[in-house]
């Protein structure tokens, strides 16, 4: 009887997830709150305990945590196809909105547009807020603050495609040695998902095969479409700590190569704050800027594909992983490093391209205060930033 109670129609799943995709403003932490109200309290599709376990798993994995939680709930309702339907409902509204925005920008001289400069300053305020929140939670002690500083120094002074990967790996090793005493009570219940370990192993294998072979094949396959897929897939595979951290990875993939200008890049990041849904849909915007709406769809598929493979791959093994203190210790180090990577991205390209004169700093301080202390929704701050850019900048 319990198994039947958890099943639902795909249409119902799509409608509920679409409603969340149209109304979930405020970033991944806010999304998890919306999910809790809808899936746990209102519909009782998942218990509070199992929801907390699912959130813990998705925080453990690289990728967009809120999207991965939505995928996991879809899997619990209707297996793999349910995870896909839940993801489409939650993600499609913002993909469409940002693709249309990218197409609109092609006919506008954004270099001298005041509202675009305002959106760039919005990005300063939003990322500064994210840094404050993440630093307090992920780096509360001196050792983790040292990891933050190391990640900042390395990624800012060694700006290559491999610096973030090196920082994440080194931080995981440090966490493995210094934070390996975390334990899970033996009394906790197992967390069950309707996926086999064989299916999970296949998904994890595919994840690593693509991550390793795509950069190698990129040197052989000359198609720009293949290069776009590779860049977005790797970016989606290496993001720990939430959607804001995807910024430095994507910036280093496309801006130095001249595929996307800094102004266009930061304008899109600002616009992403104004739409509901996951921050990873910023990839759809970049793809549409480079290759039109088909590029937007390809970029969205590529940047979210690792999230699917990791959720499908780890769900069957989660009961083993969550009880392993060394793995949890490594993740502790990685999470601290993410803060340093985000601060590095905050300085370059966000700060250096947006704060050019005292008036810019004043507007950024105002927007930051509205977010941090007055707790205004990000979409309201985006509107204020855009209007302020037209009137004052």
UniProtKB/TrEMBL annotation:
Transmembrane portions of the chain: 20-36, 80-103, 115-134, 146-179, 199-220, 297-318, 330-347, 367-392
Keywords carried by this UniProt record: Cell membrane, Membrane, Transmembrane, Transmembrane helix
Organism: Fictibacillus fluitans
Location in the cell: Cell membrane
Topology within the bilayer: Multi-pass membrane protein
Top-rank lineage group of the source organism: Bacteria
InterPro entries, per the entry: Chr_Tranpt_l_chain, Chromate_transpt
Protein family (similarity comment): Belongs to the chromate ion transporter (CHR) (TC 2.A.51) family.
NCBIfam families listed in its UniProt record: 2A51 (TIGR00937)
Lineage of the species this protein comes from: Bacteria, Bacillati, Bacillota, Bacilli, Bacillales
Protein name: Chromate transporter
Pfam families: Chromate_transp
């Amino acid at each position: 009887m319990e198994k039947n109670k958890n099943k639902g129609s795909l249409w119902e799943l799509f409608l509920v997830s679409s409603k969340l995709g149209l109304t979930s403003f405020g970033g991944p932490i806010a999304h998890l709150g919306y999910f809790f109200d809808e899936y746990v309290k209102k519909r009782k599709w998942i218990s509070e305990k199992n929801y907390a376990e699912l959130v813990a798993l998705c925080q453990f994995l690289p990728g967009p945590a809120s999207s991965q939680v939505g995928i996991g709930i879809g899997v619990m309702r209707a297996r793999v196809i349910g995870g896909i339907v839940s993801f489409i409902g939650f993600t499609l509204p913002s993909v469409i909105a940002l693709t249309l925005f990218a197409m609109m920008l092609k006919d506008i001289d954004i270099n001298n547009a005041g509202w675009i400069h305002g959106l760039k300053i919005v990005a300063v305020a939003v990322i500064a807020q994210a840094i404050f929140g993440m630093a307090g939670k992920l780096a509360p002690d001196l050792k983790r603050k040292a990891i933050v500083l190391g990640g900042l120094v390395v990624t800012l002074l060694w700006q290559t495609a491999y610096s973030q990967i090196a920082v994440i790996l080194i931080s995981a090793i440090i966490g493995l040695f210094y934070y390996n005493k975390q334990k899970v009570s033996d009394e906790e219940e197992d967390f069950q998902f309707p996926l086999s370990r064989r299916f999970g192993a296949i998904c994890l294998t595919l994840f690593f095969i693509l991550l390793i072979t795509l950069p190698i094949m990129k040197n052989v396959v000359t198609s720009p479409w293949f290069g776009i897929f590779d860049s977005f897939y790797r970016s989606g595979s290496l993001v720990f700590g939430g959607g804001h951290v995807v910024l430095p990875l994507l910036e280093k993939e496309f801006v130095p190569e001249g595929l996307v200008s800094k102004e266009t890049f930061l304008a899109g990041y600002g616009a992403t704050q104004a739409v509901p849904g996951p921050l990873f849909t910023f990839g759809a915007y970049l793809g549409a800027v480079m290759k039109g709406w088909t590029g937007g769809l390809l970029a969205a598929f590529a940047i979210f594909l690792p999230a699917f493979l990791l959720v499908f791959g780890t769900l069957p093994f989660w009961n083993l992983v969550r009880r392993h203190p060394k793995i949890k210790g490594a993740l502790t180090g990685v999470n601290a490093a993410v803060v340093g990577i985000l601060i590095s991205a905050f300085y370059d390209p966000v700060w250096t391209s947006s704060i050019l004169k005292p008036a810019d700093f004043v507007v950024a301080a105002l927007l930051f205060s509205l977010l941090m202390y007055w707790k205004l929704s990000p979409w309201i701050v985006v509107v204020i930033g855009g209007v302020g850019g037209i009137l004052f900048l």
